[in-house]
Amino acid sequence: MAALTGDGAYDRVGVYAAVHERHAEAAVVVPPRADAVLSETATTAPTQRDRYIQVIAETGRMAWQRSNGYNQRARVEGQIGCWKQVLGPALRFHTDQAQATEIAIGAAVLNRMLDLVRPNSVRVA
Predict the structure, then answer these.
(1) Residues 73, 75, 81, 87: is their CA dihedral positive or negative?
(2) CA distance 31 to 3
(3) Residue 75 CB-half CA count within 13 A
(4) What distance in Å separates the CA atoms of residue 105 and residue 29, rounded to the nearest whole number?
(5) Residue 3: phi, psi to the nearest 5?
(6) Which of 12, 17, 116, 124 has the fewest CB atoms within 10 Å of its CB?
(7) Whole-angstrom distance, CA of residue 86 vs CA of residue 106
(8) Distances (CA, A) of 83 to 95, 96, 118, 119
(9) What DSSP string describes 44-68?
(10) What three-state secondary structure class fits 28?
(11) Strands 27-29 and 3-5
(12) pLDDT, tens digit (0-9, with 9 covering 90-100), for 54-75
């Protein structure tokens, strides 16, 4: 399933409309602002955002994040932060082929570093 996942800055009517215009089946996984209110058509034809607001009101924000896979966004941001800290904030090469090679080497380096520090745990009993 296609989806756009973003932080609360993307909680705008224009974002939902632009995604729906380009990919009608795509989900917009954006947490509504804390002061978000339901639209006028929430009772008759609720929008995706209206449903998010209702679920958050009923189950809480953390439950909404788990049910929508929003926590995956935080994991991806953490990986990007790790990449930037170890390999730098930008790609150094300009052509697509050179950038693809640079990314492949960078990913191999990070994976090797993670393998070196990951503990090898075994169950004793």
Answers:
(1) negative
(2) 13
(3) 6
(4) 32
(5) -155, 150
(6) 124
(7) 9
(8) 20, 19, 17, 21
(9) TS--HHHHHHHHHHHH-HHHHHHHH
(10) strand
(11) parallel
(12) 999 999 999 999 988 888 888 8
Q: Which two tokens stand for residue 121?
A: 């745990």
Per-domain residue ranges of the chain: 3-72
- Tokens standing for residue 111: 């994976």
What pTM value is reported for the model?
A: 0.67
Termini Cα distance of the chain: 42
Given 3-state DSSP classes, what are the helix, strand and coil percentages for the chain, each rounded to the nearest 5? 60, 5, 40
In angstroms, rounded to a whole number, what is the distance separating the alpha carbons of residues 70 and 5? 7
The tens digit of pLDDT for each residue in 93-110 reads 999 999 999 999 999 998
Say which residues have a Cβ less than 8 Å from residue 4's Cβ, sequence separation at least 6: 10, 15, 19, 26, 27, 28, 29, 30
